[in-house]
Amino acid sequence: MSSRRERPPWALGAPAALGALLLVVPLVGLLLRAPWSGLPRILATPEVADALRLSLVSATLATAVSLVLGVPLAWVLARTDLPGLRLLRALVTLPLVLPPVVGGVALLLVLGRNGLVGQHLDAWFGITIPFTTLAVVIAETFVAMPFLVVAVEGALRSADRGYDEAAATLGASRLTVFRRVTMPLVRPALVAGGVLCWARALGEFGATVTFAGNLQGTTRTMPLAVYLAMETDPDAALALSLVLLMVSVAVLFTLRGRWVGTGGTV
Amino acid sequence: MTAPLVFAGVVQRGGFELHAELTVAPGEVVAVLGPNGAGKSTLLRTVAGLERLTSGTVRVGDEIWQDADEHLPPEQRRTGMVFQDHRLFPHLDVRENVAFPLRSSGVRVRAARQEARRWLESLELDHLADRRPGQLSGGQAQRVALARALARRPDVLLLDEPMAALDAGARIDVRAFLRAHLREFPGPVLLVTHDPLEAMVLADRLVVLEDGRVVQEGPPHEVARRPASSYVARLVGLNLWAGVLRGGEVALDGGGTLAVSEGATVEEGHPVLVSLRPSAITLHTERPDHTSTRNVWRGRVAAMEGLADRVRIEVHGTPPALVDVTHAAVTELGVDVGAEVWLSAKATEMEAYAEGAPRRTETTTL
After folding, report:
1. Please, which residues bridge with residue B271 across strands?
2. Does ipTM top 0.85?
3. A170 to chain B: which residues are within 8 Å by CB?
């Protein structure tokens, strides 16, 4: 931060103020209009409680899947020189910028009842994925995993490979090196990527509603419930929004100094 | 297992080529000395398996570590490696760092910790057991790094410039520490350094590497006395001139002649190197008349550097020379940069020896 503080010129100050208002006022409005006194009662109603529970469970599962699959993927992207790796990296990070609803459509085309893979799953094993909680987890993973992959890959790239070498000369197999040296050294990025991934999964709407549908207790997560409740029960929508806002604030707090704050980067 | 380490091969990388043959006996400490970029670290890393030979063999006794068909990955070679930047795992404390190679070889947690503790005790480092690497001084970290390398129970010990990153005080401590503990190690020890003193103190044998080739090999005192290249001469602080022996005198390549001691077994007409200690040269402001010294030549003072107990004077002449004189002598003679001076040196002080490969000086006799 510069020690020289100056008044911004009008041409910069006015749009800056307007921009800040645009971002802050809606949140303030949410806090002002929130049904604070009725909050416990609203959150206890079956519809809301179902959405809460389902959201927490599916976001956590999606994060777990992302860790299990995404961390090795990040490792491959960062530490190997397989052919086509650049293309793979581009494809893996595509969901970051892809409209989630497009992801949902794509998932439906592949895993839907008549999808490329889905029809075989149905014919051979009698498994149908769309409109199940599994579909929610898959949709959330599709959208959220790239956040984890990008965070961990960046950390793996910048991590000192010297430690891995040292571990190898000390007799550690490549898997042991990964488990006992590489991963502990990128743990901050792993935590940050995991939290970010979880937060993204929790807020997922487009891919979920397209691929998993909107069934209470099975696929209706909090964002879906909020959208639906806005029509019928605005207080429930507000209560759920408030919960999601709290979660977001908590996530920011966890990642402070890493993704936000003064020039913090991963 | 105590078996000799044999390295014989070529490593090509970009435009650089390391081409060396080297055998290190069990219990022997060999120092690889050379300027930056000479291939010292490449040699060490190839032995460790961190880099591959382009062709050739690395083996320990009968166990092939690499040849045309085989490349044993680093984790399957029993090497203990100490790096310049210690590379202690920052997320593990000292005990866990030393236990790491044991855990990696399948020793259970408790047993590994106990054995780590024994290693730390035997190296008198147990008071550091609970510290993280970030809480250690550079010297302590290198000692722990040696403990960790030894805990691997390696067949071969490799040290890559272990003292290069340390400050002067820590360097002396670690050098003494290594001197004490490298002797106890039963297998071959390969030490890479660019510090001649380190090499002299720690090694049984020096191997001088320049531009990927071994230019000299021999016991430290021999290498120090009879450097085979200007690099080594500069390192050990000697004058070195190349020439051809003609009629008991050496006609130098750069002009001038030097009388050398009788009895040099170098043959007439053959290339020869002459080395001379800078302190064996006497400095005069006028041509010395009454001297029996056979080597007298003129020059001009090009540079002067005050050292702790003497002044090193660089004289441009035919041949050029480094001269060491006392501070008192400088005052007495009143010389300064640019001054015309005369140099004299006794023929008996001149060390003349054959130039050319093989430069295993242990086999050369004078």
Report:
1. B244
2. no
3. 75, 80, 100-101, 104, 148-149, 152
CA distance B289 to B174: 51
pLDDT in tens, B94-130: 999 999 999 999 999 999 999 999 999 999 999 999 9
pLDDT over threshold 60, residue A264: no
- Do B81 and B149 meet the contact criterion of CB atoms below 8 Å apart? yes
The single-letter DSSP state of residue B142 is H
Residue of A nearest to B73 (CA): A168
Q: What is the average pLDDT across B295-321?
A: 89
- Taking the C-alpha atoms of residue B37 and residue B234, their distance in angstroms, rounded to an integer, is 17
A97 vs A112: CA distance, rounded Å: 23
Interatomic CA distance for residues B275 and B305, integer angstroms: 21
CB under 8 Å to A99, separation ≥6 — which residues? A206
In one-letter notation, the amino acid at residue B160 is: D
Nearest residue in chain A measured CA to CA from B156: A169
Amino acid at B14: G
Closest partner residue to A171 among B50, B90, B101, by Cβ? B101
Q: How many CB atoms are located within 10 Å of the residue B284 CB? A: 16
In angstroms, rounded to a whole number, what is the distance separating the alpha carbons of residues B76 and B187?
Answer: 17
> In the structure encoding, which two tokens stand for residue A107, read together?
């998932």
Residue from A164, A165, A170 whose CB has the most chain B CBs within 10 Å, to mutate: A170
Give the Å distances, CA to CA, from A128 to A105, A213, B65, B315. 16, 13, 53, 91
- Supply φ then ψ for residue B255, to 5 degrees: 100, 155
DSSP type of residue B274: E
The pLDDT, as a whole number, for residue B69 is: 87
pLDDT range class, residue B356, cuts 50, 70, 90: low
Asked if residue B98 lies in contact with residue B151, where contact means CB atoms within 8 angstroms, the answer is yes
